Amino acid sequence: MNDTKIRRAQVLCAIVERGNGQSLISHLSSYGMGYQLRFTGHGTASSEMMDILGLGSSEKDVIVSMGTEDAVADAVKGFSENLSSTRYRGIMMMFSPDAVSRLLAVILNMKKSEDPERKEAVVMKNEHQHSLILVVVNQGYTDQVMQIARRSGATGGTVIRARLAEAEKESQFHGITLQEEKEIVAILAPDSIRNQLMEDVNSECGFRSEAQGVLCAVPVDKAFKI
């Protein structure tokens, strides 16, 4: 790299209809996105709601893609220029991490610098009008979480299967035995309902309940359909 300046890294997270994930990864790679992961999940919105939103089937591919801020800006600009496009039948969210490892930052910058037609980055204001709420609960409690979330104004979420780390040992925390099988419910919600939604879910599905729920919220720079 001739340019010694390390550009800031940003993250795109997309939830798309199952089968469209690999195509989206290839598309984002063309913009210089240098590190990408794919997971599987399923949506919790009713079929009627998915028809209204145009989000297709309940089976989902979850894509986490990292790149420099100018690579992300180019990719987002490409989607925003075609607002009616829903070819991937899903949504995309953009995040700005506070820190990443220097080696990863260097790799992402090298990936973007290989693009001979790189344009200047589009300046995007971080408005943080939405948050991605992550609720980790014991397996079998996602329906209860979503019922509570919908009462608070959420329209749907995506469920990702997970396991407790070091599950071969009987894990306990302050005398509470932790269940091995977990599910992560990811809910994109306006900030206007975020706090109430989290309070409602925590009151019924919190850590000391049978669901053993753990919640966090991450500010979303932008969210849009793709």
Structural notes for this entry:
The protein is built from 6 helices and 11 strands. The longest helix is centred in the C-terminal third of the chain and has 15 residues. 29% of the residues lie in helices and 33% in strands. Strand 7 and strand 8 form a beta hairpin. It has a 9-stranded antiparallel beta sheet. The chain has a two-stranded antiparallel ribbon with strand order 7-8. The protein starts with 8 loop residues before the first strand and ends with a strand.
Distance between the termini: 33 Å
The topology string of helices and strands comes to: EHEHEHEHEHEEEEHEE
Unreliable stretches: 116-126
- Write down how many β-strands occur, each being a DSSP E stretch of 2 or more residues: 11
Which key phrases capture this entry?
226 residues, alpha+beta, two-stranded antiparallel sheet
Summarize the structure.
This protein is of the alpha+beta class and 226 residues long.
Please give the structural blueprint.
Elements: E1 9-17, H1 21-29, E2 35-43, H2 47-53, E3 59-68, H3 69-80, E4 90-95, H4 102-113, E5 130-138, H5 142-151, E6 158-163, E7 172-173, E8 176-177, E9 181-190, H6 191-205, E10 214-220, E11 222-225
Antiparallel strand pairs: 1-3, 1-4, 2-3, 2-6, 4-11, 5-9, 5-10, 6-9, 7-8
Helix pairs in contact: 5-6
